[in-house]
Design goal:
- With about 110 residues, the chain is of the alpha+beta class.
- It has one domain: 3-Layer(aba) Sandwich (Rossmann fold), CATH 3.40.50.
- The protein contains 1 helix and 8 strands, in the order ββββββββα.
- A hairpin with a 3-residue loop joins β3 and β4.
- Keywords: Membrane, Transmembrane, Transmembrane helix.
Length: about 110
C-alpha cells in the first residue's frame, strides 16, 4: 500500500489511543524510521505520524462478494471490519476503499 501512496505509521508495533471520537494509532517512542521488506532486509522509511484507525483487515476467505458492512467497537468507537483473502490486487482495493470512505465522510 505504501507503493500506492499510503504512509507507514510503524512497523511491527503501534500504540492505540482514544482521542475524542477517533482511535489514533502511532509509532511508539523511539520507533525506528524503517521497514522490513521480507526477504530483502530492513530499509529506511519515514514514518507518517499518527493516523486514524478506520478498519481491521482479516486476511482470509471473505463472507460474500458484496458483504454487508461489518463493524466492531474498540474503546466504544466503531471500527470497520474488512475480510478478504490475500491477493495481488488487495492493496489497490484497500486504497480505493479508503479513498471512497474519505469522500463519504467529507
Amino acid at each position: 500500500m505504501i507503493a500506492l501512496g499510503a504512509g507507514l505509521v510503524a512497523d511491527d508495533l503501534a500504540v492505540l489511543n482514544a482521542d475524542g471520537q477517533n482511535l489514533m494509532v502511532e509509532a511508539p517512542a523511539n520507533a525506528p524510521a524503517a521497514m522490513e521488506l521480507r526477504g530483502l532486509g530492513i530499509i529506511p522509511m519515514a514514518l507518517s505520524g499518527p493516523a486514524n484507525l478506520v478498519a481491521f483487515l482479516y486476511l482470509g476467505i471473505g463472507a460474500a462478494r458484496l458483504p454487508e458492512p461489518e463493524m466492531t467497537k474498540v474503546c466504544d468507537r466503531p471500527v470497520a471490519v474488512l475480510r478478504h483473502p490475500a491477493s495481488p490486487d488487495l492493496a489497490a482495493k484497500l486504497m480505493l476503499w479508503l479513498r471512497a470512505r474519505d469522500a463519504i465522510d467529507r
